[in-house]
Amino acid sequence: MNSHQNARLTAQGRARLIKRIGEIGIVAAAAESGVLVRTAYKWRARFEREGPAGLRDRSSRPRRTRSALSAQARARVLALRARRDPIRAIAASLGHPYATVQPLAIAIEAGLAVQLPLVLLVLPVLLAVTQRTVPAAPFRANRDV
Predict the structure, then answer these.
(1) How many CB atoms lie within 10 A of CB 109?
(2) Which residues, at least 6 apart from 40, have a Cβ–Cβ distance to it below 8 Å?
(3) Alpha-carbon span 72 to 21, nearest angstrom
(4) Are residues 82 and 122 in the same domain?
(5) What tens digit of pLDDT does each residue of 101-133 get?
(6) What is the largest CA-CA distance in the chain?
(7) How many structural domains compose the chain?
């Protein structure tokens, strides 16, 4: 992985910084390397925790996305919106934040979120939901009709 153009230290520069910290102290080594003392402490702590591997460049890409819904959760949202359940109630029943469920629910109502694989996942859920004693209201994607 390459360092970005504004990076003060490359992996070799970080190794040099760690070596100089041992020789002349952290404040002087940070000044010599042109980085903040706070940055020098960060690299020293990472080196102590992970060894030389900790000085390598890392990806800034998130390891996971909090707001992503699984295919099963998406199917459940589709089924519950078909029953006209409120978005807040759906979010609460799934254990997801409203802000995660709401964009999908809006896309469903606009007819943008229905895809064949999702429909195939939803069929068993829809059957289970519609077999309740209370009849479900008909689902209309467009309210103007």
Answers:
(1) 16
(2) 17, 21, 26, 27, 29, 30, 33
(3) 52
(4) yes
(5) 888 888 877 776 555 455 555 555 665 655 554
(6) 78
(7) 2
